[in-house]
Amino acid sequence: MKRKRDSVTAMSSLTSGGIESLGAEFEVFLSFRGPDTRLNFTDHLYHSLDGAGIRVFIDNEEIRKGEKIGEELLRAIKDSKIYVPIFSRDYASSPWCLRELAHMVECSRRLTDKVLLPIFFDVDPSDVKLRTRLYADALKRHEDRFGYYEVQSWKEALTEVASIDGWDCKDRRQGELIKLITDEVTMRLARRVRRLVPDHLVGIDRHMQTIIHLLGKDSHDVRFVVVHGIGGVGKTTLANVVFNQIASQFDGCSFLSDIREFSQQGKIAKLQKRLLSDILKSKSIKVHDTNYGINMIRGRCRHKKVLIVLDNLDKRDQLVMLAEKCNWFGPGSRIIVTTRDIGIFKAYKNHASMHHKVYHFYEMEEMRYSDAIQLFCRHAFESDAPPHEYDRITREIVNITGRLPLALVVIGSSLCWVSEEVWDDVLAKLKEMPHKEVQEVLKRFRKGSCS
Questions:
Q1: Where does 205-363 sit in CATH, by number?
Q2: Catalytic one among 20, 100, 160, 440?
Q3: Is 396 a catalytic residue?
């Protein structure tokens, strides 16, 4: 992200045409009248959003030349997810502001994923709806220069946006208001953040429904759900799917991938920092060591309803340093753990009467045979079933791989559009491997060879 050096310098660089693709870099578009709010409210709001890790486009209509919005600015508006017009007393005196607003409204009409969040800085919604002379007189003056039809589109945009629930700055502390706006924006953006999941998912729905049931949507307790099973069975994919399904229900979310690898590299403090940054929506978090991180997590997250995924745990101390106790998090929080080693949680399983309301366990077993065939075929043949001449060899490969989704995807993809001789060679080499060594086979496939 390009951070702001100062208000004027940053705005000048953005409007100079030096960025080839603005829209790809920004999530929020701020529209405002420079002399009214640039050095106070807008500047503070920008820094608050920026500090929360949000990519903000901030325009300066004062330094623009000509009367048409350039392609870069149009792209920034089109591709931004949230529009924040800041209505001040002289906002309607600026043709640039009105053009931006009209384009934002046009985009929000055509695309349902756009959000308009108006701020009424030192005006009332009635002013913006043209029920008073403040904005109405400004638009009347514009008609002589820009013509009736363009000004009419500005009027329609103003009245439409003024009807949306926004924030009124009158008689409110700016610091408090800016925090509310930042929280609202981060919440709306968080709903759009989705974990990447593989194409051609097969048989995942029944697992997902079971996990969601164990999570207990309407329960206000803090709950852990432990998904366990052998490597390659699909635990991480399941966690990703569930995360995407329920993340919008929480104040903050964090998905910590492959904790085992980070732990082996001595980087648990880095994971603590990522967890805090995700939950608190701030990139300025500093974690000096793991003890400091534990104190930060249990101190800063205890009033927040959070969703945390701890992926691929293999040691008890990893849980201790990231999410050991329920009272670290607010009511309704959910922690999903994936692990190959259920022994980490032996104490909780052996004392089920004590922990049954807190810890819930789900063993993810190998795929159903019909699902395994379908998944393999989608990657090997781009269909749900094998051609007749490949039926026997397909079933042999599915049996040898133990119906593990990771093996089926990797091997199936490697056999797509290759000769029968290659299929026979792959099958022969798989037969040489005991079932427990399938993971080693996968590693070789990733390197482009089965030998």
A1: 3.40.50.300
A2: 100
A3: no
